[in-house]
């Protein structure tokens, strides 16, 4: 995982009065970001719960899972299809199901029912890098509609179509040669922050 994941989540996007967070993780890199996000939230006294139905066999991702278990972060065995149960139990959902590395067809199969549920919940959704179900360039084609987007390294083309309340980028760690190669033109990061807001609350 090239992303320093513990730096990749803007805690101010989740007010302290909203401590219960459901983190929904996919099997690939974005799911790993979600696992470390859950651990990061737990360190700062939030109450994350993880739904991780298709666990990766990658040793690094398995280590992330073990770390979460040792921090007593609960794992759900299934995601309720009755969205009101989710609305009542949690104050926010972190979408770490699919990311920029996902192929166009990956929104089907086991992810389809997850996305169908996330489309109908009423609590805020925070998507990591690319909202699940979105094309990385074209944007939404029936995917979810997150309230907050956290772009990793740099905003993807689809971020132009993001209409939610807040947009953050976590990319201070990107090496200068990579910035130059891809002409990333990173924003100014205040102080020692590793996350910067591109769009404030709306």
TrEMBL record:
Gene3D superfamilies: YjeF N-terminal domain
SUPFAM superfamilies assigned to the protein according to its UniProt record, in alphabetical order: YjeF N-terminal domain-like
Molecular function in Gene Ontology: NAD(P)HX epimerase activity
Cross-referenced PANTHER family: NAD(P)H-HYDRATE EPIMERASE (PTHR13232), YJEF N-TERMINAL DOMAIN-CONTAINING PROTEIN 3 (PTHR13232:SF12)
InterPro entries according to UniProt: YjeF_N_dom, YjeF_N_dom_sf, YJEFN_prot_NAXE-like
One Gene Ontology cellular component: mitochondrion
A Pfam family reported for this protein in Swiss-Prot or TrEMBL: YjeF_N
Name used for this protein in its record: ApoA-I-binding protein 2
YjeF N-terminal domain span: 1-186
Transmembrane residue ranges: none
């Amino acid at each position: 995982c090239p992303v320093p994941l513990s730096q990749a989540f803007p805690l101010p996007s989740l007010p302290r009065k909203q401590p219960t967070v459901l983190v929904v993780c996919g099997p690939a890199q974005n799911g790993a970001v979600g696992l470390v996000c859950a651990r990061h939230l737990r360190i700062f006294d939030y109450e994350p719960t993880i739904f991780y139905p298709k666990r990766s066999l990658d040793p690094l991702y398995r280590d992330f899972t073990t770390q979460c278990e040792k921090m007593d972060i609960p794992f759900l065995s299934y995601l309720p299809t009755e969205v009101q149960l989710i609305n009542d139990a949690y104050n926010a959902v972190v979408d770490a199901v699919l990311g920029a590395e996902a192929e166009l067809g990956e929104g089907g199969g086991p992810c389809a029912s997850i996305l169908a549920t996330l489309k109908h919940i009423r609590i805020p959704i925070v998507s990591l890098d690319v909202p699940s179900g979105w094309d990385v360039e074209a944007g939404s084609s029936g995917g979810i509609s997150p309230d907050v987007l956290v772009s990793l390294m740099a905003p993807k083309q689809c971020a132009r179509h993001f209409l939610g309340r807040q947009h953050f980028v976590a990319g201070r760690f990107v090496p200068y040669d990579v910035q130059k190669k891809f002409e990333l033109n990173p924003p100014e990061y205040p102080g020692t922050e590793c996350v910067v807001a591109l769009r404030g609350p709306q």
